[in-house]
Design brief:
Length: 573
């Protein structure tokens, strides 16, 4: 440890007075000997374990292993729970609560006598919410990603979480599956602890934190139930104590270069569009400028190196056995910043130089990628003046330039009520426009942008159509889906003014999304537009509605952007 640097926790435990007694004495009921309070780094293990977050159900046990590592390195581990966000269960959408969970994390860290933090994460929002909160305090922090489930196995084949779910309507509509088939597929798809095993948002977030440098090398792809996950957790426990001693705060790792590395890696692994919103919000908390255009500029020409669902075929377990993220980082070395350090104090270049690829059908060499350009494309035009995004690697090539007639749904309720009506005027060239699913509109910007096609077109064998909304899409989803349209319809963006039968032009190569309606006509329509009534007048949701930023700014609450450091004035006794 740097000479003369006093640990933050000593402000609580290092005092030989009434307050020191109070801070130590009640903790003594858990049995720590005297020497736990005499200058050991106190490590907070911030746990998103919850039985209501199935993907994080094993994190209670994994935290015990982290504690062993902390103790071995001379620290004192203290675990605490924070709000956990279970993607498959919470309503109306976990995204409504990401910022609330980040506030819980931030205040829990700052208010307690902690010197370093281990973030235990897994399901989609549990990673960005904890990282955002930790950034606003800026202590030394390491992430332990909970890891993916084992591959789904179903009747001799493999099924991926999420991606498989999107096929259910097709199977339902075509009558291919019985009720027994569905019940059997349910358990076969989720047969071990861990998060979704595709490159969905959880795997994208795990790759993101490794690419940012917030984990030990290779941590993100290890399956949740593999013994090597336990080794990684234990080593992370040891390492955070060293990070406290070396004073490696989040802001030393999370530089502009680290964020650029994360954008490059996300493109190469075919990561989710949700990365844009979460990475932007994290950058906002740590004070690094990052724009929507950066994602296109830095990532869109990066080749796809991973053959993983939804962009490819394999699942996370196969990816780990092929060598995991270090192999990708090594392939990408000429695209990554060497100056950026990671949690172990070294660059990706140093950490990954010996990485070996054990299966080049799953991880490609950069000279022979699965796709030449895989990143996210940022669109602009009168339909999305502040931007919209599309993931070309998950879209249909024949729809990358398209002109079609709008079929407009004013809300998810409207969509559900009308999409399968036999007389709905829609064909495969139509453009499905969904309004009212943005940050304020829904509220919480749910993952509904990849709405199912009408049953009558599915029956005809149509697999994809252009769909446009101000919502998000699950990282496991695919299709020619334009998302994050900003300004959203609920605040009067032009998306709110689209009418049935208007022509819409999509031109991904030229990054354009155009509503073929004159400015004069749009101005006339705007005069008649009536803003939707607020969803509620009380509670957290009211605060969310009053303060949430639009998608291109990361959808954080405007007063949470930035940080307040780790200092706390005052004491309660
Ligand atoms: Fe939790 Fe997919 S539902 S990671």
């Amino acid at each position: 440890m740097e000479k003369n640097r006093k640990l933050r926790s000593q402000d609580w435990f290092g005092k030989q007075d009434k307050m020191g007694f109070v801070h130590r004495s009640w903790l003594r009921n858990q049995g720590p000997p005297n020497d736990m309070f005499t200058g050991r780094p106190i490590i907070g293990i911030c746990n998103t374990w919850s039985e209501l977050t199935p993907c994080n159900g094993h994190l209670r046990e994994l935290a015990e292993i982290v504690k062993k590592g902390v103790l071995e390195a001379g620290g004192y581990p203290l675990e605490f729970p924070v709000m956990s966000l279970g993607e498959t269960i919470m309503r109306p959408t976990t995204m409504l609560f990401r910022n609330l969970a980040s506030m819980d994390v931030e205040e829990s860290i700052r208010a307690n006598p902690l010197d370093g933090i281990v973030l235990m994460t897994g399901c989609d929002k549990t990673t960005p919410s904890t990282v955002m909160g930790a950034c606003s305090v800026d202590l030394p922090t390491i992430v332990v990603p909970g890891g993916p489930m084992l591959n789904g196995k179903f009747r001799g084949g493999e099924i991926g979480s999420g991606s498989f779910t999107w096929m259910i309507k097709e199977n339902e509509t075509s009558g291919k599956w019985s009720e027994e088939d569905f019940l059997e597929a349910e358990i076969c798809g989720s047969r071990s602890a861990g998060h979704c095993n595709t490159m969905g948002t959880a795997s994208t977030m795990a790759s993101m934190v490794e690419a940012l440098g917030l984990t030990l090398p290779g941590a993100s792809a290890i399956p949740a139930v593999d013994a090597r996950k336990k080794v990684m957790a234990r080593l992370s426990g040891r390492r955070i104590v060293e990070m406290v001693n070396e004073d490696i705060k989040l802001s030393k790792i999370l530089t502009r270069e680290a964020f650029e590395n994360a954008i490059v890696v996300n493109a190469a692994v075919g990561g989710s569009t949700n990365l844009i919103i979460h990475l932007t919000a994290i950058a906002g908390r740590i004070g690094v400028p990052l724009s929507l255009e950066d994602f296109d500029k830095i990532g869109s020409n990066i080749p796809l190196l991973l053959n993983l669902q939804p962009s490819g075929k394999a699942l996370m377990e196969d990816y780990y056995y092929a060598g995991g993220l270090p192999v990708i980082l090594n392939e990408l070395k000429n695209h990554l910043h060497e100056k950026a350090i990671t949690a172990n104090g070294h660059s990706h270049h140093f950490n990954a130089k010996k990485a070996k690829n054990y299966n080049n059908e799953i991880i490609a060499q950069i000279e022979e990628p699965f796709q030449k350009a895989a990143g996210i494309a940022v669109l602009k035009g009168n339909l999305c003046e502040n931007g919209a995004v599309i993931k070309p690697s998950a879209a249909s090539q024949h729809l990358m330039t398209h002109r079609g007639k709008a079929v407009v749904f004013s809300s998810m309720e409207d969509y559900k009520a009308r999409i399968d009506l036999p007389d709905l005027d829609i064909d495969e060239n139509s453009v499905i426009v969904l309004q009212g699913v943005g940050p304020k509109g829904f509220p919480g910007m749910p993952e509904v942008g990849n709405v199912d096609l009408p049953a009558k077109l599915i029956k005809k064998g149509i697999k994809d159509m252009v769909r446009i909304s101000d919502g998000r899409m699950s990282g496991t989803a695919y299709g020619t889906v334009i998302l994050h349209v900003s300004p959203e319809s609920a605040i009067g963006g032009n998306l709110a003014l689209v009418k049935e039968g208007d022509y819409i032009e999509l031109d991904v190569p030229n990054r354009k999304l155009h509503l073929d309606v004159s400015d004069q006509e749009l101005a006339e329509r705007r005069k008649l537009w009536v803003p939707p009534a607020p969803h509620t007048n009380r509670g957290y949701v009211k605060m969310f509605l009053d303060h949430v930023e639009q998608a291109e700014k990361g959808m954080d609450l405007n007063f949470l952007v930035g940080g307040s450091g780790s200092e706390v004035k005052g004491d309660s006794h």
